[in-house]
DNA sequence: CTACATATTAGTACCAGGTTCTAAAGAACT
DNA sequence: AGTTCTTTAGAACCTGGTACTAATATGTAG
């Protein structure tokens, strides 16, 4: 068997069972353990423990990625149809486990929640957004999002909201949201209370 | 701190971060490593590697026994640096209670997670995104997000990923993501093991 | 206070499953 | 024969532990 063939086999074996050790592979491929290791290096395949770690982290991050949680961030100031401020502290469950950097959608969620909250309408929904993650946000940092309503159509129209998120003095995120303010289909089952806070 | 209290703390710490080593725990609990190990034994908590192995096996089993269409909120297909598919079912906790319409950031989160997952790099982070919520998503609907990598720079560059999310045949969301593929910023404070995956 | 029990710490030997490095032997072409 | 690629071997070292022994603290009942 040629080197190429063997490496193909190796890829296939590890692909078929990522939990295989080098020692087991020597039995199946009938070459020395050094050859197996050289092959893994050439193919960029990490060792068993690293493979398991990556799988574990991946599935763990997956689990963490969507909380069954409601509002992202505390809205501390709200002037309807004008502006709003929300505070959100990045905690362990919001970051990638290995490097402590916040997952983008939490930062987005805070801004999105605020953009929607600031629009004074029964239903406000994000129609589109243009966003930029200016710098990474890390575990423990406190994000302060400030929203400004830029333009408005009347009932049933659209509103534009700019949101800037800071950590201290530093801009970390900016977003331009277009939010629908629709007086639509109020199939409300029960009291319509004031503002829809995301 | 009593033994009971410490063991409760230990359970909490490992529950909060299963990837913690005994050595790190000694720092947080201010007891010797032997005490940590005795506590783990009494509590029946396996060692770090065993914990990771179990998580890896668990997720692997799930991926393997993939009934493909009844999977919820999961990445069901992933070709690194090429494409990926994720399925997410909108449940009660994801919608506005009044009208049953999904909160935008859940739809975004699905797309964002997928866009990041599809990029094969140690750290992949969303740099910016241009998104459009094409139509509202309702309670009970199943969102199928399909990601396509459009362009790539090498290591340390950017990649562009398009994500389209459908409910049935209907497009509900589209997003154009620019994802940083950054070669780890190694602010190593000591034991930096191998590779940091996202 | 003493005696015993429990809790904690320390230290050693050992393990799996590797990495990293050096070195040598085999094969293969030309 | 000389050069290069491939394969094998072996030793040192690494992490994150287990298993075991032994010494020291701390508490608690008699």
Automatic annotation (TrEMBL), chains A, B:
What InterPro entries does this protein's entry cite?
HotDog_dom_sf, Transcription_factor_FapR, WH-like_DNA-bd_sf, WH_DNA-bd_sf
Q: Which GO terms describe its molecular function?
A: DNA binding; DNA-binding transcription factor activity
List all membrane-crossing ranges: none
Q: Where is the signal peptide?
A: none
Q: Name one GO biological process term.
A: fatty acid biosynthetic process
Source organism superkingdom: Bacteria
Q: Which UniProt keywords apply?
A: DNA-binding, Fatty acid biosynthesis, Fatty acid metabolism, Lipid biosynthesis, Lipid metabolism, Repressor, Transcription, Transcription regulation
- The name this protein goes by in its record: Transcription factor FapR
Lineage start: Bacteria, Bacillati, Bacillota, Bacilli, Bacillales
């Amino acid at each position: 068997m040629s080197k190429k063939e063997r490496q193909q086999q190796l890829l296939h074996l590890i692909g078929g069972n990522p939990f295989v050790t080098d020692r087991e592979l020597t039995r199946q491929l009938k070459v020395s353990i050094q050859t197996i290791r050289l092959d893994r290096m050439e193919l960029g395949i990490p060792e068993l423990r690293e493979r398991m770690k990556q799988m574990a982290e991946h599935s763990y991050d997956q689990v963490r990625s969507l909380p069954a949680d409601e509002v992202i961030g505390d809205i501390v100031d709200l002037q309807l149809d004008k502006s709003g401020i929300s505070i959100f502290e990045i905690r362990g469950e919001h970051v990638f486990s290995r490097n402590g950097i916040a997952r983008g959608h939490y930062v987005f969620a805070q801004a999105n929640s605020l953009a929607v909250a600031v629009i004074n309408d029964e239903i406000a929904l994000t129609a589109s957004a243009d966003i930029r993650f200016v710098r990474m946000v890390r575990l423990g940092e406190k994000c302060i999002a400030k929203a400004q309503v830029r333009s408005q159509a009347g009932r049933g129209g659209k509103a534009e909201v700019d949101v800037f998120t800071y950590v201290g003095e530093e801009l970390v995120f900016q977003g331009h949201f277009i939010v629908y303010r629709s007086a639509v289909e109020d199939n409300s089952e029960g009291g319509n209370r004031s503002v829809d806070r995301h």
